[in-house]
Design brief:
Length: 421
Amino acid sequence: MHKILFVHNNYPAQFHPLSTALAGRSDIKMAAIGSPTARALPGVQLIKYVIPDGEVVATHPFARRFDAESRRAEQVLYAASNLKQAGFEPDLVIGHPGWGEMLPLRPIFPKARIVTYCEFYYQLGGQDVGFDPEFPDMGIDGHVKIQLKNAATLLALDACDIGLSPTLWQRSTYPKTFQSKIEVIHDGIDTDAIRPREDAALTLRSGRVLTRADEVVTYATRSHEPLRGIHCFLRALPRIMAARPTAQILIIGGSGTPYGFSPPPGHSWRSWFFREIDGRVDTSRIHFVDNLSRADFLIALQISSAHVYFTYPFVLSWSLLEAMSAGCVVIGSDTPPVREVIDGQNGVLVPFFDIPQLADQVLEALNHPRHFAKMRKAARETVTSRYDLKRVCLPRILDFYQISPLPRATRPARAAAAQKR
């Protein structure tokens, strides 16, 4: 019996494809530890810990993040100890180091193979901070705090057997000392479910129905913020909408907690930057969709005439690859994470701060849609050949985790059947 423990604040998160693929196998038993936001999956025993309240006034500002991570680690320790006492001792532990949750895992499970999911390593400049000149430098104190964000990650990397990163660029953010310890395999995109569809139709809350016959410019990100280029996209809209008077703008996502800097008090980043273009655009053609279902999100990609994906040098969004799998014309920022995927043949690259060029490239896609048929096809071929979940990524992930692709119980039966043939 292969026993696997997942540890992630927001489980299943990146571990959803693997957890789903292994569910129901008689040779595998799975458990997961997560915070109150974690979500149970079939076949996985989920243990939720309570995020402890902690008074940090007396804690040095430099140490406050690690203090919170240590408190989480204590709760994970209790949860993991309870699992162990109940007879669940994993031979494989897969965890995300970002919240301190992996700190107690090696002492509790000394014999387990421990894998750290290496999503991102903070740098003093040129990534999520120090890239956009519109935002001031954080100063020396800020730089020290950025370095200390990596404390739990470094401890997890030192304690684990091996790391796993979804892209080459994300691995490159880590210290060279550790890069040889980190393999690169993407989580995978379900290209069977996410594919072009000529008859796709999206019904908006207003009752209006958008199809591929409409000019639809899409932008999608978990949180609308500068780190994902919301200011660039909004600033390009007056030019785009003036030139294409029937174009519909579909802005998908929310204004929740950003990955980067917090917005000014009383504003979301979206509302803050929208002030710049208010009165210069036809707001009846701009549709903010904060709570789109998964099914409708895929339809939005399928009806897209031009899809904008901008990001600082930061974690690459699944949504970029999903847009490409749906056959979108992607206008992406010419930043390292995006350049790893888009090469000019399967999408368009635009300098992050060049608003006129962003508008021009979107207009080019709207003005001459037939010219981009090859690009749409190439975009999908990139994802199916490099990032397909079932045929490319999952087999590699199973091999990486040393998990057999077939239940052990089925092997003798198949071998016997093969001998009879």
